[in-house]
Amino acid sequence: MEGPSLGTTRESAQDCGAHDDTLSAAAIGSLAFVSATFAHEALGHGSYCLVLGGRVLVHPVSMQCTVASPMLVAAGPLANIVVGVALWIVLTRFRPSSVHFHYFLWLTMAYNLFDATGYFCLGAITGFGDWGVLLTAVQLWWRVGLALLGGLLYYGCMHAVASSGYVFLGGTSSGVARGRRLTIAPYLAAGVVACAAALMTPLGRSYVWVAAAASFGAGLGLLAIHDWGESRDRPNAEHVLMRSSGWLIASIAVSCLFVFVVGRGLSLAP
Q1: Burial of 30 by CB count in 10 Å (0-12 exposed, 13-18 middle, 19+ buried)?
Q2: pLDDT for 38-83, tens place per residue?
Q3: Which residue(s) pair with 123 in the sheet?
Q4: Model's pTM, two decimal places?
Q5: Segment (H or E) for 179
Q6: DSSP letter for each residue of 90-146
Q7: How far apart are CA 196 and CA 200, in angstroms?
Q8: In what order do the strands lie in the sheet with 62-65?
């Protein structure tokens, strides 16, 4: 029996874009966002609070601690930077055999890097978030300069994310629609999960705006890079994101825990 031709095995994913499963992309996107949020709130803020002997109350996109420290405030963004850079190093040197796992690591890296640098830019100007607290005593002109630096860092992270995930991005006219699908679906899913969890908190409905900023706002860079794959070879058909029941089930389970458990406030004590 004649085997598949070289042309068939080399078929580009952009030509089979219809086979990318949008539901799986959304599911993996929500998992990636929750992972980046836990890196910030639990691994960063929470673990340092426990080290200081405090009690931790983790909410969807915030953390309350019974002790105060500037380093405690900085621990969240620093955790995002460490996790994001570590994943970037891994993805630039190794490519996971599973396209779904590759996509998950790539999105997790994106949310970690975009969260850290996006909030640096926003916080320097508005005083919002962790960076805003840390920079509150800095003079206005310095804060403007730091905001510009944050913008440059965010733009640099967009390039880092695009270069390590080019197989998911469009590089030709036929691939733009595919790249758009694989960035819009996780972006919207992350925002919906974040806002749904925020609705469950006792912190008030205004907290939903904080969750929207943390998801829809910080993740905007993901939408902008949907067609940044043109500098690389076209991805092969093996990079098509097929429907995966395992990832869908994992996403539903984790999202429910995030909304109904963390949403109400998850308490941790030493």
Answers
A1: buried
A2: 998 889 888 889 998 889 888 888 888 888 888 888 888 899 999 9
A3: none
A4: 0.86
A5: helix 176-199
A6: HHHH---SSHHHHHHHHHHHHHHHHHHHHHHHHHHHH--HHHHHHTTTS-HHHHHHH
A7: 7
A8: 62-65, 56-59, 266-268
